[in-house]
Write a structure and sequence with these properties.
Two copies of one chain form a homodimer. The first copy, chain A, is α/β, with parallel strands linked by helices and about 350 residues long. Chain A has two domains: about 20-135, NAD(P)-binding Rossmann-like Domain (Rossmann fold), CATH 3.40.50; about 155-350, P-loop containing nucleotide triphosphate hydrolases (Rossmann fold), CATH 3.40.50.300. In chain A, about 35% of the residues lie in helices and about 15% in strands. The first copy, chain A, is built from twelve helices and eleven strands.
Chain lengths: ~350, ~350
Amino acid sequence: MLPIDPTPTPAIPASPWSPPYLLYLGNAPDHLAAKTARGLAHWRPQWCVGQFRGSECKTTLGLPDLDFRQAVEAGAKTMIVGVANAGGVMDAEVVRHVVAALDAGMNIGSGLHERLTSHPEIVAAAERNARFLFDARQAPALPVGNGRRRAGLRLLAVGTDCSVGKMYTTLAIERELRSRGVRADFRATGQTGIFIAGAGVPIDAVVADFISGAAEWISPARDDGGWDLIEGQGSLFHPSYAGVSLGLLHGAQADALVLCHEPGRAHMRGLPHYPVPDLKTCLEANLEAARLTNPDVVAVGVAVNTSQAGGADNAARICKDIEDLLGLPCQDPVGMGVARIADRLQACFAN
Amino acid sequence: MLPIDPTPTPAIPASPWSPPYLLYLGNAPDHLAAKTARGLAHWRPQWCVGQFRGSECKTTLGLPDLDFRQAVEAGAKTMIVGVANAGGVMDAEVVRHVVAALDAGMNIGSGLHERLTSHPEIVAAAERNARFLFDARQAPALPVGNGRRRAGLRLLAVGTDCSVGKMYTTLAIERELRSRGVRADFRATGQTGIFIAGAGVPIDAVVADFISGAAEWISPARDDGGWDLIEGQGSLFHPSYAGVSLGLLHGAQADALVLCHEPGRAHMRGLPHYPVPDLKTCLEANLEAARLTNPDVVAVGVAVNTSQAGGADNAARICKDIEDLLGLPCQDPVGMGVARIADRLQACFAN
């Protein structure tokens, strides 16, 4: 393999809502409500100049508290509404703050279901300040998937269930590969990932006919020897969302899969009547489906979330059992990193 | 099984765009462009009072040619724009005709990609006449699929490819079962089917997260011993649309599958680089995926389109070969009917 320049941080994308960011937390009642902002602060700290918190905010990202003017002075170009209110809607205070941020000179990006453009005050403020509004949950115009083999190397995170750490795993692999001097770019399919990547498609929000087309669009042909690391969504075994997972699997044309899993989960997320599939069945079903568009796909590892496993010894035992079962490296990206998964990936694609 | 009243024709639905219909052909350049109108005239002749053709129309449905006033006098309540122009858009003449039909007192249903409501003249005419506009390709608000087992019997048509006769097959089974006194209702997932059923969801147009929810919504629990016969879409083996097919398969909770196939097709529709899957692999993959939401699913037959097979002898031989391969009745619904498939269905669900 030719030597590749290390690229430890991504180039700032040329989107109109580019970083640096001010992270808006509003009156987030707890850590979970600020999930999008937290993901950004964790994975792109170099892009985040500060946070804005309302008087009743119950969480912090540990960033400097800045008002809108201070944020602009600190270099912020875009404010990210990175907080989930009940129902994904903006209350009157959020709308007022967004207008003030626009008047201070920032663009706005939002991961809420409710669109920025559905508020006339926000649209008017954007127009009078010539600023840009970006709703991360609104899908762009997309082509239908064509299934044609394209150049480049692609990894996709798949899961036994929803919310098992697919985004975290993919970003951890990006960080690990980059630290080794391998070109690697996270490709986002959800709203938090889109702000982290600076681009992407909210794949659960595209029209059904365009799912695989969206996956093709976010990971186009590349010939620099680097990897596209595609954020997975849902699970082939989740009866609510499996269509999204299959379209993503076909569009990704993945060369490599990483299986993500949370041990000990009693049932599929939100569906008490559905058990979590066993790892072997789940991995084989994903490989079988992936072969339609890439017959050479291989699995390179398993990423587990052992935060509920009751300590490091239990976590190590869980990983050992999975390694014995599947013959693949198994790690918790949070507690153990992903070095051994990356080793396997590089060994499988050494030429 | 309890005796069931025969229901040879469906009740006219209570939608605001209800039949009787005038079928608008405009200046359709050929038979294929009038596919939606042709499907309606074939499957619901009792709902179609006539056709309207432009001066350059190159096809006919064999119905009386009526102008808008004559159609209303003949009882038409809704005009169906059942013609596909290039790009699915309405030219100025179509818009003029739609306005005239509204002024004559009809509601309008359209299967075009471009929405009726995107034309201010059409919206104004609907408002001044208090008529209803229905865009069949616009999906209604839908729930996320929940995967809970629901009462009733459901059959789903699945396919080796797109456009292999899934709608025709499902409607033929509806007709056959009704002729035997079995309650059976076609459930539509595409625009032509929606006009035929008088209700339904254009499943390829729903947002990706709601595919299985849409399938659940169109075939709710029923306890009258009758069948919901669900129109399939796409194929698990079509890399552009398999996500739609899988979500539909999960949401349908099908008790019975019918596999639809066109022998001799050189490759997947629109994708010269993808071969058509073999029937056994395709059927087994569909059964395996369907078991996630209904472990008891069975296959009851194969419907083939032998129109390109070169005659009745070839068609019979093709069916015989498939029967030997899969152990299921195989018929061409157009040339042979679906009696043997219906026999198998009834035999499998005799209690």
